[in-house]
Amino acid sequence: MVAIAAQYDMRIHQVDVTSAYLNGKLDEEILMEIPRHIEKPLDILIKTSDKVCLMRKALYGRKQAGRSWHRRLDDESKKFGVIPSSADPCVYYQGRGEEILLVLVYVDDILIASRDLGKINSFKNHLKTAFEIKDLNNIKCCLGIEFNRSDRAIQLHQQRYIEDLLDHFGMKDCKPVSTPLELGVKLQKECEDTGEDNKEFPFRELMGSLMYLAANSSLEFLFKWEADEFEDNIILSRIKKLAIAHVPAGWREWKIQRYTKDE
Predict the structure, then answer these.
(1) How many CB atoms lie within 10 A of CB 238?
(2) What is the pLDDT of residues 183-192, one digit of tens each?
(3) Domain Reverse transcriptase Ty1/copia-type: where (predicted)?
(4) Which of 37, 28, 30 shows the shortest CA–CA distance to 54?
């Protein structure tokens, strides 16, 4: 969608739906215990153990909450006249060519793209009749990805995401490095265990954050390890247990992110 918007010089606006899952409608009858910390008007009911609540909305945490919300949004979108793509049900469109209106949905984040600002505003006004929304206007940041717009070009980067995670892992002031692995280092899937059960080194959290970067903007992270044991291009993705040798390698991956975050 972003590539199409850049090619046709489309505007991209962003909308966030407030408490999205609470807009979903339930088909089933679901009963729940009365919340213990509910307001005083229900004190009498709380003291009566045989009373329960009837759930009228798809609360967060219910198995059907996500599906119920998507179905409700799908119904409201179709009322406006946009059609879901056969390639991706989370992408909607109206019209064709340079006059097309594109709508991209990711849970409660909605991106709307068109050359015609009137079409974008019309769709946003339609959403306002059904949901409480935050109109963020021109897209700046979505899902940790920042957007810089110029003439028929859109740059995607995650500088703020990297800076926040460097701070989270206590590496904000670390010394940057320009290579992802020290010369001559070879890691294996299994070697001597640290014996610490990963408590002092958030290995999976650190690698998961790096994988999100790799999937979106930091392609330099997707390189092939020299070790034959690794089947994937994602660094350390197949390691079964953390070993002593993996700790400096894991931290080094964040040092290179500090080196490249401004690029």
Answers:
(1) 12
(2) 665 655 554 4
(3) 2-182
(4) 30
